[in-house]
């Protein structure tokens, strides 16, 4: 809903787009592009805007984000994976899911920065996503912004649960605090093993797709991490943001 409603996070994203140096291109790992087999890389010149959600207000379905693709960058990314012995395929038909266009429309409303999406894979887990980020890290020196688009906590079922789980707010706070501390102290191994080490891991992420983009972004950095935004909506949906140097 932040696409059509002002919130602390929508204001943050607008401000972020105004303060970051303008990238020449953007690579996005989105929670909503989860592929079971091959890595899929968008390679179209003008991918369509996908409205991949249901039962929301009509204005959301009318929004278009006509940012261009970047076939040349897609090919470069494919080569990075190929050289690492990882199969990747390019898709000229895949469009921008809402994990891409909702934040980027706020950050860069002119829609004039080329985008490439790289799929995640919840079956492979954290270490694979971290490696994906490491493989793409050289792109940063070419002024390519790498984004992990998901959520620090994402338990939609709990939003509609009645009665609510006791102490659910505390459970989210404990998890998000743990994530923050491990990121800031650069304890990557603990993060990679979050399912066994983090408090309330499965409550905060009953499924992993909204957490895995974090690991791709983390892998693309050089180690230093800064927390740049904190927000919780509906008591338990944490929308914190981190910057990786």
TrEMBL record:
Superkingdom of origin organism: Bacteria
Does the keyword section mention Oxidoreductase?
yes
* Keyword flag Oxidoreductase: yes
What UniProt keywords are attached to this protein's entry? Dioxygenase, Metal-binding, Oxidoreductase, Zinc
Q: Which residues form the Extradiol ring-cleavage dioxygenase class III enzyme subunit B domain?
A: 22-231
> What cofactors are annotated for this protein?
Zn(2+)
Please state what the protein is called.
Dioxygenase
């Amino acid at each position: 809903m932040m696409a059509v409603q002002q919130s602390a996070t929508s204001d943050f994203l607008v401000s972020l787009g105004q303060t970051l140096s303008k990238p020449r291109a953007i690579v996005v790992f989105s929670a909503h592009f989860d592929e079971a087999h091959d890595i899929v890389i968008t390679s179209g010149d003008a991918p369509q805007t996908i409205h991949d959600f249901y039962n929301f207000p009509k204005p959301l379905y009318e929004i278009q984000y006509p940012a261009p693709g970047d076939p040349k960058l897609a090919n470069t990314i494919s080569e990075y994976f190929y050289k690492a012995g990882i199969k990747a395929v390019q898709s000229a038909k895949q469009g921008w899911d809402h994990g891409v266009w909702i934040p980027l429309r706020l950050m860069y409303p002119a829609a004039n920065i080329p985008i490439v999406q790289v799929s995640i894979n919840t079956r492979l887990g954290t270490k694979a996503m971290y490696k994906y980020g490491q493989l793409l890290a050289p792109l940063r020196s070419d002024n390519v912004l790498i984004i992990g688009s998901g959520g620090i906590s994402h338990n939609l079922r709990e939003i509609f649960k009645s009665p609510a789980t006791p102490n659910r707010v505390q459970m989210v706070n404990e998890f998000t605090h743990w994530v923050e501390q491990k990121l800031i102290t650069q304890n990557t191994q603990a993060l990679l093993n979050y399912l066994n080490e983090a408090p309330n891991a499965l409550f905060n992420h009953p499924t992993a797709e909204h957490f895995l983009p974090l690991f791709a972004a983390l892998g693309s950095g050089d180690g230093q991490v800064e927390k740049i935004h904190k927000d919780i909506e509906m008591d338990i949906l944490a929308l914190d943001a981190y910057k990786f140097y």
